[in-house]
Amino acid sequence: MVVSRPLKRIKRVVADYYSFNSFGTSACPAGDRTLEGPFRSNIKSFLLSYADGPLPLKISSPPFIQRWRVRLRLDDQDEDVFIALNIVEENVKQSDSVYCDYCRVVAGWQENPVCKTRYHFIIQADNVKQHCASCGASVASSASSRCKACDLEISRDTDLEDETQLILEDARHLLHGIIHVNGFGHLLRVNGREGGSRFLSGCDIMGLWDRICIMMKAR
Known about the structure:
The protein is an alpha+beta fold and about 220 residues long. The chain is built from three helices and nine strands; from the N terminus they run E-E-H-E-E-H-E-E-E-E-E-H.
């Protein structure tokens, strides 16, 4: 999800947003944890250091997932551009997709599940509909900071529920990558400006993905 708002209308404090351009580099604050182990331990430290969550899920959400969000800010823009990097933890044993189709093709692992947990890294499309977490009414991302239906003040990204938050296989995602808990990963989708993104090019998205993989020791 990419949200833009004019600078003169921004009232929120943006200090807790990480720079999109430097996230995953030495210029990015490392918090209180280092990522020096294998991916299975690095992902836990990563979520504790950088992400909000686990985020509350809808009652209709499947029980085998948990969701976190890393809040990023795109630098050098005429307006503040906020980008939500969603991380969805999927419990493979409880999932409908026990086997990884991508591992079947690439590595020939067809008989057994690759591992018990996989993580989806997703940036949703700019035009994904949002709903107020309190009353469920539609809320425009560029509109007032209050819900018109219930007058809830939308002060944080977590006050909005994304309509497609649990649709993992969505062709509109600007970024969708999977990393198994053993560190083996797949880049499934990149949609830059030609794919509908207003602010991010394919190179921007690929750069972020590469830095995340290096940062967390994925392979």
